[in-house]
Amino acid sequence: MPPISGLYRGQDGESQLDLRVDVDGKRPTGRLSGDLFTTTGSTTAYHGSFVVHSTTRQGDRVEGQGAFTFAAPDRHVTVTITEDSATATVAGRTYGLHRASPYFRSVLLEQDSVAGAVPFVSYDTGALQGPPGRRTLTVAEAYAEAGVELRIAEPGVIPVDGAGQDLAWDDSELHNAMTQQFASFGDQAAWRVWLLVASKHVGGFRGIMFDYNDACQRQGAAVFHDAIKGESPQAQRAQLRTYVHELGHAFNLLHSWQKNLSRPPQPLGPHGGFGDLSWMNYVQNYQPGGERAYWQAFPFQFTDPELVHLRHGFFRDVVMGANAFGTGAAEIDPFEQPVSDQSGLLLEVRAKDFFEYGEPVVVELKLSYAGEPRTTHGHLHPDTEFTQVSITQPSGRTVLYRPMMRHCVDDSPEIRLDSGNPAMYRSAYIGHGRDGHYFQQPGDYQVRGQYIGADGSRIVSAPCLVRVRHPITTTDARVGELMLGEEQGKLFSLLGSDSPALRSGNEALEEVIECYGEHPLAVYARMVKGLNAEREFKDLGADKKLHVRPPDTGESIEQLGAVARQATVDNITLNMVMRRLARAVARRGDLDLAHGVLDDMVSTFAAKGINDIVLGRIRQQAELTKRALSAETS
After folding, report:
1. Distance CA 107, CA 311 (A)
2. What angle do CA 586, 587, 591 make, to 5 degrees?
């Protein structure tokens, strides 16, 4: 009997069923699943989904008890298949079906590349040492092996004429590109995804999944050619993994070590997830044995639980543009201290005494060692997802901070913590993320951090009190409201943007500057406006042409200069602001004054009384920045 697995489609009156039969063929999971839709007039709406995790089969009949997303009058599912047709009884209704595809799901992939960034083609899995099962894999074929059809749209090439020398993309520019490219898709869930092949990211990442809190969730990703380019087998292998990995996030697959943070939580694989031989793991963190051991054993496939999700996850948990990444509700249990911790690492979350209503909440993360010196990786910022932050709100609800953009880091530089380098620090804006604003109400919040070390250890901080004060005056209340808009939160996350999709947010921050410029919170509006003006801004419009707005040095010097003089932002942010201010001054042609800004930066931090080791690093930063600015202007 030929294989019967695949997608079957049919209806009973106004009810339409997409049924997935997965009982034979390549890597069968022994499941049935389906999505139900209701047709009314000329419209079709999603009704619900089900999955049968345990089936019995007798000849052409497959059946079992289903788990439904809705209250089904009868949970028993029965399917009888005859050649290319089937009859299914689901939730008390009987459907006549035809075999629509040997694949379980079908997705349209639209891929655009910036001129000079050559898209990946294919990789011969036998070109380098690895497990048996040699074949030539494209991205589409990698997903086809998982039972998912990627239909490739005509690729587009984006010219870079007039783009200048800076082809490094930042999150703000990528966010703008997504809003422009996906405007034609509409605000609905759909099996389509956009992939941008760009030159490089300012942070040096290999890939990024666009993941923000509107109707475009999980609908796009970018890969950065300069970080993975090359024609060697090693480069082609890295390209294949990066493309499949980033698109995996669009299907709502988490990193291997983060599956316990999904809702409902999923069990972690061996070694806290780092032992998974999966597209979704990081090769350099594979345990045991690291990158070499990973490639020697990796079969170029998803794990069994990931396969179940791709084929049988409920519709809204998988389809692009529907449920949020990892979970719909984002509610979690607070991080708990391990019963035993022999890692020798200490994590602290620190915040200032209080925040005003509407003030961007920034915390400082500090990782130090206790006892013997330790070596670990340097990914301490929560945007790279080796560190997570939980927030217990005044209501008692605990949520996970989820960055607006999720960065995938394919290298983990080692950091040694010892007497000469006792701690590393990161400043993190956690006031806004994919779920919106996290500190919208006055009151007391408890913030905890969890750092996942190079060996998989999970280091949990003590709780940090974050206190948001009630507004005292009507002006405080008005400024707070202007700061707490959804678009304003995105602008703080992105450190500014020219995107038309964020126009009203920029107008609100401009109102803060123009009408309430003396208010203490105006410094944050000035910072966002100044940082955005200081850089050039690449606008990839709906016409698929790249337009570049040059830096506005006058505006950036005015706004960042005010931020530097006020010096009320946190130390790490102030350091960044003053270095960006120096760059703007140098671009205006006054190199001596730019060097003076950097000297002022050192003096400012010396006056704050920070410890000698950190002050030494700041002095070194200042000197390196002076050399870089001198080279740029020579």
Report:
1. 12
2. 20
